[in-house]
Amino acid sequence: MSAVPLFQWRGWCWLGLCLVCLLQGFSAAAGVNPPAGKSSYVLADSIGYGLFLDGFEAKLQAQLGAPARISYDGGRSITTPGNQIKKSALQSVEADRALIAKAGVIIIILGMNQLEPSFEKSQYELLLRLREIAPQAQYYWVDIGATIAPQVAGWNVRNKLIYENAPTLGYRVISRYKAIFGASADPLRIVAGQNFPGWGSEEGYGGPGNLHGFNAELSNAILQKLADVQRCALPQDLSTYVLGDSIAFGLHTVGFQASLADQLGGVAKISYDVGRSISSPGLQIKQSALQSAVQDRAFIAQADIIIVILGTNQTELSFADSQRELLQQLKSIAPKARYYWVDIGATLASQALSWSVRNQIIYNQAPSLGYQVISRYKAIFGEKADPLHILPGQIFPDSITEPGYDTPGNVHGKSPELARAILAALPGAACAALK
Question: What's the mean pLDDT when you consider all of the chain?
Fold first, then answer.
C-alpha cells in the first residue's frame, strides 16, 4: 500500500447526479422474514478479504435470504488496481455488472489506499456508475478504521468526506473505526499509531498502528446496521412534492429527491424555476408557482408531504395574499397533506430588510394557513440566528460574497445544510439518523 497527497475538489456538484434511492426492506436478525431475490454485493479492498475469511458472505446470505458476493482486491482504490485480481473498484463494477444489477444491498469498503488524485471526485464517479446499474439498491459505505501513523492525517480527511457526502450520494455510513475502538471513538479524529485493542503494531507499514483484523467485529457492525434499517422501515410510503425557486434547484443538484425517497419511502418530485415567485414565472420552465401547481395537479393530489420554498424573489404585489392564494390552491388539491414552508435565508444587503419582513409573514401566517416553518436561515447560520432580523450583507460561513448581485451577502449555496434541516423536520428523522 502506498500513500500520495490527497487533493480535494470542494464546492462543485454534478448536475447529472440525481440519485434514485428507494427504501427497500431487508431481513433483520430479530425475526423478520427475508425477502426473496434480494442479493447483496460488497465492493472492497483488503478489508473485504478479511470479511471473506470471516465467512461474511454466508452471514449476509443468512440475514438477507439471498446470495451475497464480496469483490476484494488487496491494495486497490476506486481508480487503481490491487494485487490479487488486479482490478480497480471501477473495473470490478463493470466486470460484476450482472451481479450488481440484481443487488438490493451494496456495501462499499474503499478509501484506505490513498491512490486517487481526488477521493471525492472518485466517490461521485463510483456511486454514479453503481446507481446506473442498481438504482433501487440500498447503499452503505464503511469508514476507515486503520491507524498506521504516517497515513492517519489523510485518512481523517477521507473519513470526513465519507460522512459529509452521505446525504448527497445517498448512502449510510457504517463505522469500522467504532467497531474496533467502541461507540465513543471519533472516526474523524483517528489516533495516529494507536494499536487495535490487545494488539501490537502491524509490521511492515512504516509506522506504529494497525490496518487489518477485527473482521468479526466489522461483520457484526454491518449486520447490525442492516437489521436496524429494516426495523426502522416506515409501514407505508410517503410521497413528497417540493415547490420552489432557485433554492429548490440547489436541493435538486445535491440529490435531495433521493434523500426524500430514502427517508420517507415514497416517490418525490421537485418543481423548481430559477427566479420565479408565487405569481411570476422564472427563467427555466417559465412558470409561476401557481402555474406549476396546476400543471402538477395529479402528483400533488397523491402527495403526503408538500414543501414550499418561495419568497426570495420579491415580485408579488402582496406576499401575504399570494401565500394565502397558493396554500388555498394546494389544499384544494391535497387537503390531507402535511405542509411545510422554508423561510428566506439570503442576506444580500439591498434586500435583507424586506426579506426579514417576509420571514415575519411566513412565521405569522403558519397557524392560520396550516404549515410548519423550516428555517434555511438557521440551517446556514445556526440555531441562535434570527430569521426575522436577517443581517444585511452577512457572508455565508466558509463562503464569499456571491458575484453578480452588486451587494455583499449571499443568495444561493449551502444546499446540503438546508437538505439536512428539512429532513430533520420530516417524519422518519430519527430513522434517518441511522445513516
Answer: 89
Given a cut of 70, the residues of the chain with pLDDT beneath it are 1-37, 231-236, 430-435
**DSSP secondary structure of 352-404:** HHHHHHHHHHHHHTHHHHT-EEE-HHHHHH-TT--TTS--TTPPPTT--PPTT
**Distant-in-sequence contacts of 357-363, Cβ < 8 A, 24+ apart:** 358/311, 358/314, 358/319, 359/311, 359/387, 359/388, 359/390, 360/388, 361/319, 361/320, 361/323, 362/311, 362/323, 363/387, 363/388
CATH of 39-231, picked from 3.40.50.720, 3.40.50.1220, 3.40.50.1110, 3.20.20.140, is 3.40.50.1110
Right CATH number for 238-432 from 3.40.50.1110, 3.40.50.720, 2.40.160.210, 3.30.450.20?
Answer: 3.40.50.1110
pLDDT digits (tens, 9 = 90+) for 299-340: 999 999 999 999 999 999 999 999 999 999 999 999 999 999
